[in-house]
Amino acid sequence: MGKGLLLTVSLVFLHYVSLASPYVLLCYYLKTSEQRSPNINFHPENIDACLCTHLVYSNVNGPTDFTKWKETDVFQRFNHLKTKNKKLKTLLGFITFACGVRSIAISKESRKDFANSIAKYLRWHKFDGLDLDWKSPERGCKSPEDKRRFTLLVKELMAAFKAEAKKSMKERLLLTAPVSSHINDIKADYDVAKISKYVDFLSVMTLHINSIVDRVTGHNSPLHRGSADKSSHRNIDYILKYWRDQGVAPEKLLVTFPTFGNIYDLSSSQTGIGAPVSKSGKAGPYTVEEGIKAYKEICPFLKGATKQMIEDQKVPYAFKGNEWVGYDDRESFKTKAQWLKDNNFGGATLWTLDLDDYSGTHCNEGVYPLANALKTALGIDNSGCVSSAFMKTPAKVENMLLCRNKADGIYPFPKKKYKFVNCGCSGSHVLTCPSNLKYNNDCRCCVK
Fold first, then answer.
1. Could you tell me which of 39, 49, 249, 312 has the fewest CB atoms within 10 Å of its CB?
2. Shortest CA distance to 25 belongs to which of 1, 48, 59?
3. Tell me, which fold does domain 20-391 have in CATH?
4. How does pLDDT run across 173-187, given as a tens digit for each residue?
5. Are 387 and 293 in contact, with CB atoms under 8 Å apart?
6. Which sequence spans correspond to the domains of the chain?
Protein backbone atom coordinates (compact mmCIF):
# COMPACT_ATOMS: atom_id res chain seq x y z
CA MET A 1 0.00 0.00 0.00
CA GLY A 2 2.89 2.34 0.85
CA LYS A 3 4.49 1.64 -2.54
CA GLY A 4 1.22 2.42 -4.30
CA LEU A 5 0.93 5.76 -2.55
CA LEU A 6 4.55 6.59 -3.38
CA LEU A 7 3.93 5.75 -7.05
CA THR A 8 0.82 7.97 -7.11
CA VAL A 9 2.71 10.90 -5.57
CA SER A 10 5.56 10.41 -8.04
CA LEU A 11 3.20 10.43 -11.02
CA VAL A 12 1.50 13.59 -9.77
CA PHE A 13 4.91 15.24 -9.35
CA LEU A 14 6.02 14.23 -12.84
CA HIS A 15 2.76 15.56 -14.27
CA TYR A 16 3.34 18.88 -12.48
CA VAL A 17 6.90 19.12 -13.79
CA SER A 18 5.75 18.37 -17.34
CA LEU A 19 3.38 21.34 -17.17
CA ALA A 20 6.18 23.77 -16.30
CA SER A 21 7.64 25.58 -19.29
CA PRO A 22 11.22 24.56 -20.12
CA TYR A 23 11.87 27.96 -21.70
CA VAL A 24 13.65 31.01 -20.35
CA LEU A 25 12.32 34.54 -20.82
CA LEU A 26 15.14 36.92 -19.95
CA CYS A 27 14.12 40.60 -19.96
CA TYR A 28 16.30 43.68 -19.94
CA TYR A 29 15.78 46.73 -17.78
CA LEU A 30 18.22 49.50 -18.68
CA LYS A 31 19.72 51.91 -16.22
CA THR A 32 18.80 54.63 -18.71
CA SER A 33 15.12 53.62 -18.49
CA GLU A 34 14.78 55.92 -15.49
CA GLN A 35 15.86 58.92 -17.55
CA ARG A 36 15.25 57.94 -21.18
CA SER A 37 13.39 61.18 -21.92
CA PRO A 38 11.81 64.09 -20.06
CA ASN A 39 8.38 62.85 -21.18
CA ILE A 40 8.38 59.55 -19.36
CA ASN A 41 10.22 57.63 -16.68
CA PHE A 42 10.31 53.87 -16.15
CA HIS A 43 11.35 52.54 -12.78
CA PRO A 44 11.77 49.10 -11.17
CA GLU A 45 8.40 49.63 -9.49
CA ASN A 46 6.78 49.74 -12.96
CA ILE A 47 7.94 46.20 -13.85
CA ASP A 48 5.41 43.38 -13.67
CA ALA A 49 7.39 40.82 -11.67
CA CYS A 50 5.38 37.97 -13.23
CA LEU A 51 6.35 38.59 -16.86
CA CYS A 52 9.82 37.08 -17.06
CA THR A 53 11.82 34.20 -15.63
CA HIS A 54 15.00 36.31 -15.51
CA LEU A 55 15.51 40.08 -15.24
CA VAL A 56 18.72 41.91 -16.10
CA TYR A 57 19.57 45.31 -14.65
CA SER A 58 21.85 46.59 -17.40
CA ASN A 59 24.20 49.33 -16.29
CA VAL A 60 24.47 51.03 -19.67
CA ASN A 61 27.13 53.79 -19.76
CA GLY A 62 28.25 53.08 -16.21
CA PRO A 63 31.94 53.10 -15.17
CA THR A 64 33.88 49.94 -15.93
CA ASP A 65 34.86 49.75 -12.25
CA PHE A 66 31.66 48.40 -10.71
CA THR A 67 32.77 49.45 -7.21
CA LYS A 68 32.12 53.06 -8.30
CA TRP A 69 28.49 52.44 -9.18
CA LYS A 70 26.06 54.48 -7.11
CA GLU A 71 22.78 52.69 -7.84
CA THR A 72 22.61 50.67 -4.64
CA ASP A 73 19.14 52.08 -3.90
CA VAL A 74 17.95 51.05 -7.37
CA PHE A 75 19.47 47.59 -6.90
CA GLN A 76 17.41 47.21 -3.74
CA ARG A 77 14.22 48.31 -5.48
CA PHE A 78 14.98 46.07 -8.47
CA ASN A 79 15.62 42.97 -6.37
CA HIS A 80 12.53 43.69 -4.27
CA LEU A 81 10.59 42.32 -7.27
CA LYS A 82 11.61 38.84 -6.11
CA THR A 83 9.32 39.22 -3.11
CA LYS A 84 6.42 39.24 -5.60
CA ASN A 85 7.71 36.35 -7.72
CA LYS A 86 9.63 33.72 -5.79
CA LYS A 87 10.78 32.05 -9.03
CA LEU A 88 12.29 35.22 -10.51
CA LYS A 89 16.07 35.39 -11.03
CA THR A 90 17.82 38.77 -11.24
CA LEU A 91 21.15 39.45 -12.91
CA LEU A 92 23.45 42.46 -12.95
CA GLY A 93 24.47 43.53 -16.44
CA PHE A 94 28.15 44.46 -16.69
CA ILE A 95 29.82 45.91 -19.78
CA THR A 96 33.51 45.11 -20.16
CA PHE A 97 35.82 46.19 -22.94
CA ALA A 98 38.33 44.06 -24.81
CA CYS A 99 40.69 46.99 -25.08
CA GLY A 100 44.35 46.42 -24.31
CA VAL A 101 45.52 47.25 -20.78
CA ARG A 102 42.04 48.62 -19.88
CA SER A 103 40.53 45.16 -20.11
CA ILE A 104 39.72 43.23 -16.95
CA ALA A 105 40.68 40.13 -18.97
CA ILE A 106 44.23 41.30 -19.72
CA SER A 107 45.97 38.91 -17.29
CA LYS A 108 45.33 35.87 -15.15
CA GLU A 109 45.53 38.03 -12.02
CA SER A 110 43.06 40.64 -13.32
CA ARG A 111 40.59 37.95 -14.37
CA LYS A 112 40.78 36.18 -11.02
CA ASP A 113 40.49 39.43 -9.03
CA PHE A 114 37.44 40.47 -11.02
CA ALA A 115 35.75 37.07 -10.73
CA ASN A 116 36.17 36.88 -6.96
CA SER A 117 35.17 40.48 -6.30
CA ILE A 118 32.10 40.45 -8.56
CA ALA A 119 30.86 37.25 -6.88
CA LYS A 120 30.95 39.03 -3.50
CA TYR A 121 29.34 42.15 -4.99
CA LEU A 122 26.45 40.18 -6.51
CA ARG A 123 25.74 38.36 -3.24
CA TRP A 124 25.91 41.58 -1.23
CA HIS A 125 23.32 43.24 -3.46
CA LYS A 126 21.15 40.10 -3.69
CA PHE A 127 21.55 39.42 -7.43
CA ASP A 128 21.38 35.84 -8.71
CA GLY A 129 24.00 36.21 -11.39
CA LEU A 130 26.01 38.25 -13.88
CA ASP A 131 25.14 39.21 -17.47
CA LEU A 132 28.54 39.87 -19.07
CA ASP A 133 28.52 42.13 -22.13
CA TRP A 134 31.89 41.75 -23.89
CA LYS A 135 32.55 44.75 -26.13
CA SER A 136 35.22 44.18 -28.77
CA PRO A 137 36.12 47.30 -30.79
CA GLU A 138 36.37 47.09 -34.55
CA ARG A 139 39.67 48.94 -34.63
CA GLY A 140 42.07 50.88 -32.42
CA CYS A 141 43.14 48.84 -29.39
CA LYS A 142 41.71 45.57 -30.73
CA SER A 143 44.08 42.64 -30.14
CA PRO A 144 44.15 39.14 -31.66
CA GLU A 145 44.40 37.93 -28.07
CA ASP A 146 40.95 39.29 -27.18
CA LYS A 147 39.09 36.15 -28.26
CA ARG A 148 41.26 33.93 -26.05
CA ARG A 149 41.05 36.33 -23.10
CA PHE A 150 37.25 36.33 -23.17
CA THR A 151 37.23 32.54 -23.02
CA LEU A 152 39.59 32.63 -20.05
CA LEU A 153 37.47 35.30 -18.37
CA VAL A 154 34.22 33.31 -18.50
CA LYS A 155 36.11 30.20 -17.39
CA GLU A 156 37.49 32.08 -14.38
CA LEU A 157 34.07 33.52 -13.57
CA MET A 158 32.37 30.14 -13.61
CA ALA A 159 35.11 28.67 -11.41
CA ALA A 160 34.71 31.54 -8.94
CA PHE A 161 30.93 31.18 -8.92
CA LYS A 162 31.17 27.44 -8.23
CA ALA A 163 33.69 28.01 -5.43
CA GLU A 164 31.54 30.74 -3.90
CA ALA A 165 28.45 28.51 -3.98
CA LYS A 166 30.33 25.71 -2.24
CA LYS A 167 31.58 28.10 0.43
CA SER A 168 28.28 29.91 1.00
CA MET A 169 26.16 26.78 0.55
CA LYS A 170 23.86 28.79 -1.71
CA GLU A 171 22.65 28.18 -5.25
CA ARG A 172 25.41 28.97 -7.74
CA LEU A 173 25.39 32.42 -9.31
CA LEU A 174 24.30 32.40 -12.96
CA LEU A 175 26.51 33.56 -15.82
CA THR A 176 24.92 34.80 -19.04
CA ALA A 177 26.16 36.95 -21.91
CA PRO A 178 24.65 38.93 -24.80
CA VAL A 179 26.54 38.06 -27.98
CA SER A 180 26.66 39.33 -31.54
CA SER A 181 24.38 38.32 -34.39
CA HIS A 182 26.85 39.39 -37.11
CA ILE A 183 28.74 36.43 -38.55
CA ASN A 184 32.06 38.23 -39.04
CA ASP A 185 32.02 39.46 -35.44
CA ILE A 186 31.17 35.99 -34.16
CA LYS A 187 34.18 34.54 -35.98
CA ALA A 188 36.50 37.31 -34.77
CA ASP A 189 35.39 37.70 -31.15
CA TYR A 190 34.31 34.33 -29.77
CA ASP A 191 35.73 30.85 -29.40
CA VAL A 192 32.16 29.65 -29.53
CA ALA A 193 32.51 26.01 -28.50
CA LYS A 194 34.72 26.86 -25.53
CA ILE A 195 32.80 29.78 -24.06
CA SER A 196 29.57 27.78 -24.21
CA LYS A 197 31.01 25.40 -21.60
CA TYR A 198 31.22 28.14 -19.01
CA VAL A 199 27.94 30.05 -19.40
CA ASP A 200 24.35 29.24 -18.55
CA PHE A 201 22.83 31.16 -21.48
CA LEU A 202 23.94 33.21 -24.48
CA SER A 203 21.52 35.90 -25.66
CA VAL A 204 22.07 36.21 -29.39
CA MET A 205 21.25 39.86 -30.08
CA THR A 206 19.10 39.40 -33.17
CA LEU A 207 18.31 43.07 -33.65
CA HIS A 208 19.71 45.76 -35.94
CA ILE A 209 20.27 42.96 -38.46
CA ASN A 210 19.58 45.58 -41.12
CA SER A 211 20.31 49.27 -40.56
CA ILE A 212 20.85 52.65 -42.16
CA VAL A 213 24.35 51.65 -43.33
CA ASP A 214 22.65 49.59 -46.05
CA ARG A 215 20.99 52.76 -47.45
CA VAL A 216 17.84 50.77 -48.20
CA THR A 217 14.86 49.62 -46.15
CA GLY A 218 15.33 46.35 -44.28
CA HIS A 219 13.70 44.80 -41.25
CA ASN A 220 15.26 45.14 -37.83
CA SER A 221 14.87 41.45 -36.95
CA PRO A 222 13.65 39.19 -39.80
CA LEU A 223 13.02 35.53 -39.01
CA HIS A 224 13.96 34.09 -42.40
CA ARG A 225 15.94 35.07 -45.47
CA GLY A 226 13.95 37.31 -47.78
CA SER A 227 13.63 36.81 -51.52
CA ALA A 228 15.45 40.12 -52.10
CA ASP A 229 18.32 39.37 -49.70
CA LYS A 230 21.75 39.12 -51.28
CA SER A 231 23.20 37.53 -48.16
CA SER A 232 21.99 34.35 -46.49
CA HIS A 233 23.41 35.47 -43.11
CA ARG A 234 21.07 38.28 -42.15
CA ASN A 235 18.14 36.56 -40.48
CA ILE A 236 17.38 34.89 -37.15
CA ASP A 237 17.12 31.39 -38.60
CA TYR A 238 20.63 31.44 -40.07
CA ILE A 239 22.26 33.23 -37.12
CA LEU A 240 20.91 30.97 -34.35
CA LYS A 241 21.70 27.82 -36.30
CA TYR A 242 25.20 29.15 -36.94
CA TRP A 243 25.81 29.53 -33.20
CA ARG A 244 24.36 26.07 -32.61
CA ASP A 245 26.46 24.46 -35.34
CA GLN A 246 29.64 26.00 -33.92
CA GLY A 247 29.15 23.93 -30.79
CA VAL A 248 26.64 25.61 -28.47
CA ALA A 249 23.97 23.37 -26.99
CA PRO A 250 20.66 24.73 -28.35
CA GLU A 251 19.13 24.93 -24.86
CA LYS A 252 21.78 27.55 -23.95
CA LEU A 253 20.84 29.84 -26.85
CA LEU A 254 18.29 32.62 -26.35
CA VAL A 255 16.72 34.47 -29.29
CA THR A 256 16.41 38.24 -28.82
CA PHE A 257 12.98 39.78 -29.45
CA PRO A 258 13.15 43.57 -29.92
CA THR A 259 10.35 45.81 -28.64
CA PHE A 260 11.33 48.52 -31.12
CA GLY A 261 11.53 48.91 -34.89
CA ASN A 262 13.93 50.63 -37.24
CA ILE A 263 12.67 53.75 -39.02
CA TYR A 264 13.90 55.38 -42.21
CA ASP A 265 13.13 58.37 -44.40
CA LEU A 266 12.34 57.13 -47.91
CA SER A 267 14.09 58.90 -50.78
CA SER A 268 11.83 57.74 -53.64
CA SER A 269 8.29 56.58 -54.32
CA GLN A 270 9.33 52.98 -53.58
CA THR A 271 7.97 51.62 -50.30
CA GLY A 272 8.86 47.92 -50.14
CA ILE A 273 11.86 46.02 -48.83
CA GLY A 274 15.04 47.34 -50.46
CA ALA A 275 13.59 50.80 -51.18
CA PRO A 276 16.25 53.56 -51.15
CA VAL A 277 16.42 55.73 -48.02
CA SER A 278 18.00 59.10 -47.35
CA LYS A 279 18.60 58.89 -43.60
CA SER A 280 17.45 57.42 -40.31
CA GLY A 281 13.94 58.42 -39.28
CA LYS A 282 13.43 61.15 -36.69
CA ALA A 283 13.47 60.32 -33.01
CA GLY A 284 10.21 59.58 -31.23
CA PRO A 285 8.99 61.38 -28.11
CA TYR A 286 10.02 58.53 -25.78
CA THR A 287 13.04 56.83 -27.33
CA VAL A 288 14.70 60.16 -28.23
CA GLU A 289 17.01 58.34 -30.63
CA GLU A 290 17.07 58.68 -34.40
CA GLY A 291 16.47 55.51 -36.36
CA ILE A 292 14.32 53.59 -33.88
CA LYS A 293 10.73 53.67 -32.67
CA ALA A 294 9.51 51.98 -29.50
CA TYR A 295 6.45 49.78 -29.90
CA LYS A 296 4.44 52.33 -27.93
CA GLU A 297 5.46 54.91 -30.56
CA ILE A 298 4.78 52.58 -33.49
CA CYS A 299 1.14 51.97 -32.49
CA PRO A 300 0.11 55.62 -32.94
CA PHE A 301 2.15 55.76 -36.18
CA LEU A 302 0.13 52.85 -37.60
CA LYS A 303 -3.06 54.91 -37.57
CA GLY A 304 -3.39 56.07 -41.17
CA ALA A 305 -0.28 54.14 -42.27
CA THR A 306 -0.15 51.36 -44.87
CA LYS A 307 0.75 48.05 -43.20
CA GLN A 308 2.33 45.10 -45.00
CA MET A 309 3.54 41.66 -44.01
CA ILE A 310 6.90 40.47 -45.39
CA GLU A 311 5.63 36.97 -46.07
CA ASP A 312 8.97 35.19 -46.49
CA GLN A 313 10.49 36.84 -43.42
CA LYS A 314 7.36 36.59 -41.23
CA VAL A 315 7.56 40.19 -39.95
CA PRO A 316 5.58 43.40 -40.69
CA TYR A 317 6.45 46.90 -41.86
CA ALA A 318 4.47 50.09 -42.40
CA PHE A 319 4.88 53.40 -44.19
CA LYS A 320 3.23 56.80 -44.09
CA GLY A 321 4.38 59.77 -46.11
CA ASN A 322 8.12 59.37 -46.45
CA GLU A 323 8.50 57.43 -43.16
CA TRP A 324 9.05 53.66 -43.18
CA VAL A 325 9.27 51.39 -40.14
CA GLY A 326 10.05 47.68 -39.86
CA TYR A 327 8.79 46.34 -36.55
CA ASP A 328 7.49 43.35 -34.60
CA ASP A 329 3.97 42.90 -33.28
CA ARG A 330 2.23 40.25 -31.21
CA GLU A 331 1.70 37.97 -34.21
CA SER A 332 5.34 38.06 -35.35
CA PHE A 333 6.40 37.40 -31.74
CA LYS A 334 4.16 34.32 -31.67
CA THR A 335 5.55 33.09 -35.00
CA LYS A 336 9.14 33.53 -33.85
CA ALA A 337 8.39 31.83 -30.52
CA GLN A 338 6.95 28.80 -32.31
CA TRP A 339 10.06 28.64 -34.53
CA LEU A 340 12.21 28.84 -31.38
CA LYS A 341 10.36 25.89 -29.84
CA ASP A 342 10.45 23.87 -33.05
CA ASN A 343 14.24 24.21 -33.05
CA ASN A 344 14.67 23.40 -29.35
CA PHE A 345 16.37 26.65 -28.38
CA GLY A 346 16.47 27.64 -24.74
CA GLY A 347 14.14 30.60 -24.82
CA ALA A 348 13.94 34.30 -25.52
CA THR A 349 15.52 37.59 -24.55
CA LEU A 350 13.31 40.68 -24.52
CA TRP A 351 15.07 43.95 -25.36
CA THR A 352 13.74 46.01 -23.58
CA LEU A 353 10.84 46.29 -21.14
CA ASP A 354 10.46 50.07 -21.26
CA LEU A 355 10.08 50.13 -25.07
CA ASP A 356 6.98 47.93 -24.87
CA ASP A 357 3.62 49.61 -24.22
CA TYR A 358 4.03 48.81 -20.54
CA SER A 359 1.27 51.15 -19.35
CA GLY A 360 -1.19 49.94 -22.02
CA THR A 361 -2.04 53.53 -23.01
CA HIS A 362 -0.71 53.63 -26.60
CA CYS A 363 -1.70 50.42 -28.39
CA ASN A 364 -5.08 49.43 -26.95
CA GLU A 365 -3.68 45.91 -26.43
CA GLY A 366 -3.39 45.86 -22.65
CA VAL A 367 -0.27 46.35 -20.56
CA TYR A 368 3.03 44.95 -21.87
CA PRO A 369 1.39 43.56 -25.04
CA LEU A 370 4.60 42.22 -26.62
CA ALA A 371 6.05 40.80 -23.40
CA ASN A 372 2.75 39.14 -22.53
CA ALA A 373 2.41 37.67 -26.03
CA LEU A 374 5.90 36.19 -25.71
CA LYS A 375 5.27 34.89 -22.20
CA THR A 376 2.08 33.15 -23.36
CA ALA A 377 3.69 31.72 -26.50
CA LEU A 378 6.52 30.19 -24.44
CA GLY A 379 4.10 28.81 -21.87
CA ILE A 380 5.75 30.63 -18.96
CA ASP A 381 3.76 29.79 -15.83
CA ASN A 382 4.59 31.96 -12.83
CA SER A 383 2.34 30.16 -10.37
CA GLY A 384 2.01 31.94 -7.06
CA CYS A 385 2.71 35.31 -8.66
CA VAL A 386 -0.24 37.60 -9.30
CA SER A 387 0.31 39.66 -12.42
CA SER A 388 -0.47 43.31 -11.87
CA ALA A 389 -1.49 46.06 -14.22
CA PHE A 390 0.98 48.87 -14.75
CA MET A 391 2.07 50.07 -11.33
CA LYS A 392 2.13 53.82 -10.73
CA THR A 393 5.55 55.02 -9.65
CA PRO A 394 5.46 55.68 -5.90
CA ALA A 395 5.55 59.36 -4.90
CA LYS A 396 8.67 58.66 -2.84
CA VAL A 397 10.54 57.51 -5.96
CA GLU A 398 9.26 60.41 -8.07
CA ASN A 399 10.44 62.85 -5.40
CA MET A 400 13.88 61.22 -5.37
CA LEU A 401 14.25 62.04 -9.06
CA LEU A 402 13.17 65.70 -8.94
CA CYS A 403 16.75 66.93 -8.56
CA ARG A 404 18.25 64.63 -11.19
CA ASN A 405 20.73 66.58 -13.37
CA LYS A 406 20.04 69.79 -11.40
CA ALA A 407 22.53 71.95 -9.53
CA ASP A 408 21.95 72.55 -5.82
CA GLY A 409 19.24 75.14 -5.29
CA ILE A 410 15.49 75.79 -4.96
CA TYR A 411 13.07 74.76 -7.73
CA PRO A 412 9.28 74.75 -8.29
CA PHE A 413 7.47 71.48 -7.61
CA PRO A 414 5.84 70.17 -10.84
CA LYS A 415 2.10 70.95 -11.08
CA LYS A 416 1.71 71.93 -7.41
CA LYS A 417 2.13 75.67 -6.84
CA TYR A 418 2.14 75.45 -3.05
CA LYS A 419 5.21 73.16 -2.99
CA PHE A 420 8.88 73.59 -3.88
CA VAL A 421 11.99 71.42 -4.00
CA ASN A 422 15.29 72.01 -2.25
CA CYS A 423 18.03 70.21 -4.19
CA GLY A 424 21.10 69.63 -2.08
CA CYS A 425 22.79 67.27 0.35
CA SER A 426 22.65 64.56 -2.33
CA GLY A 427 18.89 64.42 -2.35
CA SER A 428 15.49 65.95 -3.13
CA HIS A 429 13.69 67.66 -0.25
CA VAL A 430 10.05 68.54 -0.96
CA LEU A 431 8.74 71.43 1.12
CA THR A 432 5.28 72.99 1.45
CA CYS A 433 4.45 76.67 1.72
CA PRO A 434 2.36 77.87 4.70
CA SER A 435 -1.41 77.80 4.30
CA ASN A 436 -2.85 80.06 1.52
CA LEU A 437 0.61 80.81 0.10
CA LYS A 438 2.20 79.60 -3.12
CA TYR A 439 5.79 79.32 -4.24
CA ASN A 440 7.20 82.10 -6.45
CA ASN A 441 10.36 81.19 -8.34
CA ASP A 442 11.32 84.86 -8.98
CA CYS A 443 11.95 85.50 -5.31
CA ARG A 444 12.35 81.85 -4.39
CA CYS A 445 9.87 82.36 -1.61
CA CYS A 446 6.25 81.70 -0.66
CA VAL A 447 3.83 84.55 -1.46
CA LYS A 448 0.08 85.22 -1.51
1. 39
2. 48
3. TIM Barrel (3.20.20)
4. 999 999 999 999 999
5. no
6. 20-391, 402-447
